[in-house]
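If I may wish for something, please walk me through the protein I am sending here so I can picture the backbone:
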Amino acid sequence: MRRITVTKGIGKGQTELSAFDAALQDAGVANYNLIHLSSIIPAGSEITLGRPLAQKSEFGNKLYVVIAEMRQSKKGKRACAGLGWVTATDGSGKGLFVEHIGEGESEVQQRIEQSLTDMTKNRTDTYGAITSEVASIACGGASVCALVAAVYKSENW
């Protein structure tokens, strides 16, 4: 069984880029070269929630992820990011991820549900309930970032 870990993080910084780095630190995936994947969960997968176990020896490795991230630098605004997923009811472990961002958690959640509802209609498999994770942070002056990532695997160069 392939384990895909869903992790989330928030961060603040003097710039949006350093806020993104702080959010990666919070999520436990800062010292990798991220390779963005599309939204397909391969058969034989198990989705778990938590922080991935990063090893010092993996510094600079490729890390395959589906990621939603929003950066914000306007005081009084929010950065919200979320991932949603469904898996087939046949026990195969295959499924779909979607990633959305917005300025409110309910907005992100609604987009996740709308996307997955539409995407499952276009497929022949039957899918279970929608599951999701959302990260959110308010901008109080410093730049902020919220992110949620589905971590597939780390790979050496």
